[in-house]
Write a structure and sequence with these properties.
This protein has 323 residues and is α/β, with parallel strands linked by helices. The protein has one domain (7-306): TIM Barrel. Helix content is 33%, strand content 14%. It has helices spanning 31-44, 58-70, 92-106, 144-156, 170-177, 200-208, 239-248, 252-262, 274-280, 290-297, and strands spanning 7-9, 15-17, 19-22, 48-50, 80-85, 111-116, 160-166, 188-192, 212-216, 266-269. Strands 3-4-5-6-7-8-9-10 form an eight-stranded parallel beta barrel, surrounded by four helices. Helix 2 (58-70) packs across helix 3 and helix 3 crosses helix 4. The protein is globular and about 55 Å long. InterPro entries: AKR, AKR1C, Aldo/ket_reductase_CS, NAD(P)_OxRdtase_dom_sf, NADP_OxRdtase_dom.
Length: 323
């Protein structure tokens, strides 16, 4: 684990760096900050960059990647870029246009990984989260297996090197895996995963199917009022975590990231601070003992920060199942 650019092999033969840079930011953060932070991340050694159509920042992220290619810091093939298909593009005939719209904003020829962002199909159109006059989500009835077939076509067309899913539960993963005529298995499932929601059952299931688990909100979350219950516990202030951080003379964030890597989870770290971005790269410089890991396993309390409550009435709402 001493290599700065540690990778994991995906089930389609491509390689994904195990530490990724997350680019989602609350609306009040100016978009230009995203360009700046992404450049800093690449300078610090991050090679895996994660964004999505929904984040509305792909122009800024693309600009950062292209400027780092232009100044010779990296080549395009050094960067592993992830984007995600939003819920209003689930109809099979819309999938490729969803990806093409991201590529156009990025000004890139392909993405390294394309994910179905959330298994909740919504009414197609320009509104990201379409609601009726009562504020209720306007769903769309789409067979996710048909959406997946359209994702496979994007891979065949060379627009995405690898394809996967995000926020899927076990049942939804099995639905894709058991699909007649399946051409490509999802390479990963990107889900909320941290010390308070360690996803052990889902992780073990994914490993048994050669699907990589990718963790978002690995440090808790940015606690954005729109998405997160403000009374939920603050992960990085956990006394057990802070005691372990003290023992290793590392920040609580580094301990939380390292925990995921040692479980075989690919982890996304998000920060707009140059100091923290550089510090997060130190995750490869130390190891937790089996005892440390056991203590951290014990922190799980099944607290989910991102519950996507507006989607609870959707027939495909993923978080009602145990895992």
């Amino acid at each position: 684990m001493n290599s700065k650019h540690q990778h994991v092999e995906l089930n389609d033969g491509h390689f994904m760096p195990v530490l990724g840079f997350g680019t989602y930011a609350p609306e009040e953060i100016p978009k230009s900050k995203t360009t700046e932070a992404t450049k800093l991340a690449i300078d610090a050694g991050f090679r895996h960059i994660d964004s999505a159509y929904l984040y509305q920042n792909e122009e800024e992220v693309g600009l950062a990647i292209r400027s780092k290619i232009a100044d010779g810091t990296v080549k395009r093939e050094d960067i592993f870029y992830t984007s995600k298909l939003w819920c209003t593009f689930h109809q099979p005939q819309l999938v490729q246009s969803g990806l093409e719209s991201s590529l156009k904003k990025l000004q890139l020829d392909y993405v390294d990984l394309y994910l179905i962002h959330v298994p909740l199909s919504m009414k197609p159109g320009d509104v990201s989260i379409p609601t009726d006059e009562h504020g209720k989500l306007i769903c769309d009835t789409v067979d996710l297996c048909a959406t997946w077939e359209a994702m496979e076509k994007c891979k065949d067309a060379g627009l995405a090197k690898s394809i996967g899913v995000s926020n899927f539960n076990r049942r939804q993963l099995e639905m894709i895996l058991n699909k007649p005529g399946l051409k490509y298995k999802p390479v990963c499932n990107q889900v909320e995963c941290h010390l308070y929601l360690n996803q052990t059952k889902l992780l073990n299931f994914c490993k048994s199917k050669e699907i990589v688990l990718v963790a978002y909100s690995a440090l808790g979350s940015q606690r954005e009022k729109k998405w997160v219950d403000q009374s939920s516990p603050v992960l990085l202030e956990d006394p057990v975590l802070c005691a372990l951080a003290k023992k290793h003379q590392r920040s609580p964030a580094l301990i939380a990231l390292r925990y995921q890597l040692q479980r075989g989870v690919v982890v996304l770290a998000k920060s707009f601070s140059e100091k923290r971005i550089q510090e997060n790269m130190q995750v490869f410089e130390f190891q937790l003992t089996p005892e440390d890991m056991k203590v951290l396993d014990g922190l799980n309390r099944n607290v989910r920060y991102i519950t996507f409550n507006i989607g609870t009435t959707h027939p495909n709402y993923p978080f009602s199942d145990e895992y």
